[in-house]
Amino acid sequence: MPKTGMPDIRKPQLVNATMSVIDRVGLHAASIALISKEAGLSAGIINHYFGGKHGLLEETMREILRQHGRTIQNLLKYIPPEDHQSRINAIISGNFEGYQAESKVVKVWLAFWSYAMHDIQLSRLQRVNEKRLISHLKIELKALLPSERVIPVAQGVASLIDGLWLRGALNPQGIDVAKARDIINDYLNLQLQIYAKT
To answer: According to the UniProt record, which residues make up the DNA-binding region (predicted)?
Structure first.
């Protein structure tokens, strides 16, 4: 029987090992044996805590989403609520910088997106993530745009974030954060010039 408190140590250990193995060999080759060896634990512990590789992948993605949410919240808490454009830029930055831009996290995101097309639970996590991004953007855009433009512009910004992130993730040089931010802000500024509340 596992010692009290061990799940709090072992689960993050296994999640980190999963990311490291996916970074090194890709998702399809990331076997339970390789992950458990990376974590320095028995293969049985993965089944015990997660019910197998699929459960471990799901928990790994949940952890990335939690970190993503914390990153954006931390960026937003230092920006006054009335500075909507700076808050939008913080949301943009939170998708391209720090933890989200680490090589192993990027590779897990790519694997997650490909798996989410064929897996109900992972697809649900992707929808939650997408709705959270749109919600953050809508909160800020409501103060800047007429109500009928808020959702289309939020979806436009979100699409640019995803597309530029994907292009950067597949580029050997990685994500050019400054360029991504400039492209998204060009789009946003154009929308504001045309539709901004007067």
So the answer is: 31-50
pTM of the model: 0.86
- Domain extent for 146: 6-195
Examine residue 43 and state whether it is found in any structural domain, yes or no: yes
Q: Predicted confidence band at 198 (pLDDT cuts at 50, 70, 90)? A: low
Q: Structural domain tally of the chain?
A: 1
> Using the 8-state DSSP alphabet, how is residue 109 labeled?
H
Q: Which two tokens stand for residue 158?
A: 């979100």
Buried b (16+ CB within 10 A) or exposed e, 35-44: bbebbebeee
Spatial distance between the Cα atoms of 180 and 178, rounded to a whole number of angstroms: 5
Contact between 79 and 87 under an 8 Å Cβ cutoff? The reply is: yes
CATH code of 69's domain:
1.10.357.10
CA distance 138 to 192: 14
Kindly give, in sequence order, each residue whose CB lies less than 8 Å from that of residue 189, ignoring residues fewer than 6 positions away.
none
For residue range 5-16, what is the model confidence (pLDDT) as tens digits?
Answer: 477 788 999 999
